[in-house]
Hints:
Largest sheet: 6 strands, mixed
CATH superfamily: Uracil-DNA glycosylase-like domain
Strand content: 5-15%
CATH architecture: 3-Layer(aba) Sandwich
Structural class: alpha/beta
Bound molecules: uracil
Radius of gyration: 26 Å
Distance between the termini: 77 Å
Amino acid sequence: MNDRRKRILKELNLAPVWRTKPTYSNQDELPPPEWFEHKNPILHPCSSSDSSSASDITQMDWELLKSTVSSCIACPLNQTRTHTVFGVGDEHADWLFIGEGPGAREDATGEPFVGQAGKLLDRMLAAIKLQRGDRVYITNIVKCRPPNNRNPTPHEAKQCEPYLARQIQLIRPRLIVALGKVAAQNLLQSNDSISILRGKLHDYSGTPLIVTYHPAYLLRALSEKAKAWQDLCFAVSIMESLK
Length: 243
Ligand code: URA
């Protein structure tokens, strides 16, 4: 209230003016408890203006997509990461290999599959006459390292999914190879075990997809390498049939 108005009200014996505090007739109208408990309002990353919506992401070119991922705060993994791990390779690859999420070495370097599992992946690629960067792109379901190498949560995978979907749209691979259970189940929206999912031709939004074991699992379960070799041969036969 300005001074002039206060003076007039006083002269009319109508001051001071008392206003009642807002009342809340039921629980739903109460301000959320967080506003009482925290000095500063909590900004939920997913609703903050810093996060791009899934519909924006579908329009992004490589450059914008990369920079958006590098500053992403859409899930709690941003708080513990050192680097985001976007993906690496031929941006017009025929083959797209998708793992689960970065480990410690990947988090430190920003590049996918650079640890022991990555070395085995390189040998798997070489076995079918492929190499990183040459007709091959490698990325993960989540772009930030889950602490202690735990599996990404469904929420974390969901927040990252628009980035992966846009990478796939831009690359337009002829075949996707899902490496391990986490990648396979997320890409196929399935709870089936890897033994059920491998050996079959699946579809991801119109792109053929096959499933094989994760190289980190193969390092522990050497006897499964023969099955992984079968999967790679199956992948090659699919790729040849697509020519
Ligand atoms: N395991 C994955 O799934 N991805 C990586 O980048 C490294 C290890």
